[in-house]
Amino acid sequence: MTPPERRDFIYRYLHEHQTVSIVKLVTLMSVSHMTVRRDIRLLEEEGKVISIPGGIQLNDALRQELPWNEKALIHHRYKRAIGKYAASLVEDGQVVYLDAGTTTFEIAQVLAERFNLTIITNDFSIIQYLMNKPQLNLFHTGGQVDKRNYSCVGKSAAMVLRSLNVDIAFISTSSWELEHGISTPHEEKVLVKQALLEIARRKILVSDSSKYGKYGMFRVCPLSYLNDIVCDGQLPMPVQQQLYESNMKLHIVNI
């Protein structure tokens, strides 16, 4: 692997496993300790990781998201289960918004077999997947293209959303927690998500537990702005309890 490929591998591995030892990285990449430490130093300078005794972990302050095609491979079984459950919350005849993301793509795959639904999204992958489903009404927001995430963001997309009425919105995120709420490292995404909070009758966060405990620079909203959260059973029990006590409708999907 080239140096950039090694650093991408380390960053992807951490998204899957949260922490990793230097010894493990040496074995996985078949390189020297010195090479691994050099890669780690550069990742630390970029703010992506922090050192812990004997290894590294992701920086809770999220600076950058993985590309769509890489995120799709991480925690896929949890995302698939969350997507299946979330789709069961949709009623016939509803106008449904699917936020850009790999978990919402799983919802789209289930809704693809439904009838009498209108699907709105800013995600090109979702639109492409649903394009050959004639029984569904489809609407794409348009707007500034985020090539890394195969979606549209920014003021134009938000403006289109504010002209619509949405029954149920499934909102994705790369980072959320009790203190910082939903956040993102990319300012352009904030406008779209905040527009959803204004127009949707029911607002549901769909996220696997690996996203919990991280936060980006740009805050979208407190968790209290949501109606529901759908997550997997790996979400820490103290967090689950606090969410229940706050009258949040928390749906835990066990696998």
UniProtKB/TrEMBL annotation:
MF-aspect GO terms: DNA binding; DNA-binding transcription factor activity
InterPro entries: Carb_Metab_HTH_regulators, DeoR-like_C, DeoR_HTH, NagB/RpiA_transferase-like, Tscrpt_reg_HTH_DeoR_CS, WH-like_DNA-bd_sf, WH_DNA-bd_sf
Residues annotated as domain HTH deoR-type: 3-58
Alphabetical keyword list: DNA-binding, Transcription, Transcription regulation
UniProt feature coiled coil, ranges: none
The keyword Transcription regulation is assigned to this record: yes
The protein, known as: Transcriptional regulator, DeoR family
Organism from which the protein derives: Xenorhabdus japonica
